[in-house]
Every structure is written in structure tokens, then in C-alpha cells.
Design a protein that fits this description.
Blueprint: E1 2-6, H1 11-16, H2 18-27, E2 32-38, H3 42-45, E3 53-57, H4 63-77, E4 81-84, H5 89-97, E5 102-106, E6 117-119, H6 131-146, H7 164-176, E7 185-189, H8 202-216, E8 219-222, H9 229-238, E9 244-245, H10 252-261, E10 264-268, H11 271-278, E11 282-287, H12 292-295, E12 301-304, H13 322-325, H14 329-342
Parallel strand pairs: 1-2, 1-4, 2-3, 4-5, 5-6, 7-8, 7-10, 8-9, 10-11, 11-12
């Protein structure tokens, strides 16, 4: 059987779909499993052993052109089954036009007529971790094709492999960037691409950076995408002892390898936090407007103030950003030290 999985659209979501992909591979060990995803996601799944192929695509300004282009490509591949992780109309239309016989997804975005098997949105959607939203789809596939129900009984497995060659290249890059490999390496993810409200204050990150460098003699690097460079520069400017800015200087594949070689990541609720946790690095995430019960990196520690207006899920705070301002640099530093000592 040839199975296609349409991947998710954000870095964090891409990592949260890993347990579902692993379960799909377990349930169908002899099937051909292809992940159809945005090109950037290849950096995460480059060494993944639970898919046979990664089929990437880029988006254009025309959604309809994208749909017809991708449908033509997929039609030639003659897939038997597609599992749609995104809820979008476009992903379902693409699968329909690709003539994939069995199309399984959630009944969202007025797309029921495009699917052969429509799952209702679970009542627990906003109470349980997002990983179960994807696993629930694989459980339906297992039940439909095999008549068994085992998927939801296993502990979700997020492990992401980075091969030794990539790790060596990451250490070489770090050394060339000024990192002393004999000391602890701590990365700070100070940005957040899709929400300013998710950002802990730049001055707080600067204070944390100084404490990490002065008191622990640790290397501090700033990581993130190029559109987060402004806040990295802000933290750099406020810091007494300057961190090393790697923001925007790596591909996602390179960032994944770097995160596998450091001792700790401290960040906002961002995609790289999910990646760091998946590659086995100690991870501390500062949560504010988003819900840690549903979207926290699976193995990460969190800091979260249960203020009366959180989680609001807003991209910009309309009041005083109390969910973040009530978190001190001293508190984050103390938790960072505990995680480093526990390693």
C-alpha cells in the first residue's frame, strides 16, 4: 500500500506530528510512507527513519495554482491512502484532484465532501495535548484497514535522530562562530515568528544572558529565524556580556543539528523548542498567552504564570502583558541551573 501524509504548516506542529507518523509506520510496517510537506520541514525530518520519502513543495501567491500543480504530481504517484493532518480546504481538494482513493481527515473548513472518511473534531480538542489530535487520525486509519485499536495505548514517541556527520558539522560551525566547546552551551530563543505576545521581554533575556555567562561561565547563543533578528539584536544591545548571534544564520536542518549538540535551550513558545526537546536537549519554555496543556513541547519544562487573562491566544497583548512581565530573570535562571545539573 502507498500511503501519503500531508504534513502540518508550522515547525512546532511538524514535531508534534512525529508520534502519529511513528505509529503509522508501526501499524503498516510494509507500506510505502511518503510525507508531503513544505520544503522547510525537510530540515527536521532529514534523518527520520519512520518515513520512506519526503515530497516537498513550495507555496505561491495563488492557492488554486498550488492545488492543481500538487494534485498533478500526486496523481502520477498513484497513492492508495492520504491522511490529512492540516484542516485546510486546499489540502483536501489537492487529495481529491489527485484521485487518491481513500482520503481521511477532520471535518473542517467546509471540506467534508472532498473526503471519503470524515472525522468530527474531538470534544477534547482544547483540553488534551495536540499530539493526540494527530494520533486520533492514525487510530481511525488502523481501525478502518486492520480492525484493531492499538494506536492510542502507547506513550507518544517524539524522538528525532540527527546523524553523527551533521552533529560534527554543527560543532564545527559553533567553534567557528566563537563558541568555546569546552564549556556549557546554552541557546536562547528570544523571538517568536507568529506572535509578539509570546515573547518574554528582551531586557529579561539580557539579564538572563548575563547571569548565565558571568555566574556559570557558559556560552550563550541566540537562535531563531531571520525575521527574529530584530529582537536578537535588541537582547544583544542590552546585554553586558555579549551573546553570540546565530539568528538567521542557519537553515532549519543546521539549527536542528546545533540544538542536538547544546546543553540547554531557553525560549519562548516557538518551533525550535519542540525541535530541541525532540533531539533530546534539555528545554525550558516560557509560556504566556498560549496554552501549555495543549502545545508545550512534550518533554520540556515550562514556566507559566496562571494570570486571570491567560491563555488568551492573542498575538498582541492589549493590556500590560502580565503573563510575561511577572516572570523574572532570576526565576528562569534558577530553573535553568536545575536543568543543567539534572543532565
Amino acid at each position: 500500500m502507498k500511503i501519503l501524509v500531508r504534513g502540518t504548516n508550522w515547525i512546532g506542529d511538524a514535531v508534534m506530528q512525529i508520534p502519529a507518523l511513528r505509529q503509522l509506520r508501526r501499524v503498516f510496517p510494509d507500506a510505502s510512507l511518503t510525507l508531503h510537506t513544505r520544503a522547510w520541514a525537510q530540515g527536521i525530518f532529514e534523518d527520520a527513519d519512520f518515513v520512506d520519502e519526503i515530497l516537498t513543495f513550495e507555496t505561491s501567491k495563488s492557492k488554486f495554482r498550488d492545488v492543481f500543480t500538487q494534485a498533478k504530481i500526486l496523481r502520477q504517484r498513484k497513492f492508495d491512502l492520504v491522511v490529512l493532518f492540516p484542516n485546510s480546504f486546499e489540502s483536501a481538494l489537492t487529495a481529491k484532484l489527485a484521485n487518491i482513493r481513500t482520503r481521511i481527515g477532520y471535518g473542517k473548513d467546509a471540506r467534508d465532501f472532498l473526503l471519503t472518511d470524515v472525522l468530527p473534531i474531538p470534544e477534547w480538542k482544547n483540553q488534551k495535548h495536540e499530539v493526540f489530535y494527530y494520533l486520533n487520525l492514525i487510530a481511525e486509519v488502523e481501525k478502518k484497514f486492520l480492525g484493531t485499536e492499538t494506536v492510542l495505548f502507547d506513550e507518544p514517541q517524539f524522538d528525532l535522530t540527527v546523524r553523527d556527520e551533521r552533529k560534527m558539522q554543527a560543532r564545527k560551525f559553533l567553534a567557528e562562530s566563537g563558541v568555546d566547546l569546552s564549556n556549557k552551551i546554552i541557546a536562547l530563543g528570544v523571538g517568536s515568528t507568529n506572535s509578539r505576545a509570546k515573547r518574554w521581554q528582551a531586557e529579561s533575556y539580557a539579564k538572563l544572558n548575563d547571569k548565565l555567562q558571568f555566574e556559570l561561565k557558559a556560552n550563550v547563543i541566540l537562535v531563531g529565524a531571520s525575521d527574529e533578528l530584530d529582537v536578537s539584536n535588541e537582547v544583544f544591545g542590552m546585554s553586558e556580556k555579549k551573546p553570540i548571534i546565530l539568528t538567521g544564520k542557519t537553515s532549519l536542518a543546521e539549527a536542528t543539528a546545533i540544538l542536538s549538540e547544546i546543553d540547554l535551550l531557553v525560549s519562548n513558545d516557538m518551533g525550535l523548542a519542540h525541535v530541541a526537546s525532540a533531539v533530546g536537549t534539555q528545554t525550558l519554555v516560557i509560556f504566556g498567552p498560549t496554552n501549555p496543556n495543549t502545545t508545550r513541547p512534550w518533554k520540556a519544562e515550562i514556566i507559566y504564570k496562571n494570570v486571570e487573562c491567560a491563555p488568551c491566544m492573542l498575538r498582541d497583548c492589549p493590556i500590560d502583558h502580565r503573563c510575561m512581565t511577572r516572570i523574572s530573570a532570576d526565576e528562569v535562571f534558577e530553573k535553568s541551573v536545575n536543568l543543567l545539573n539534572a543532565k
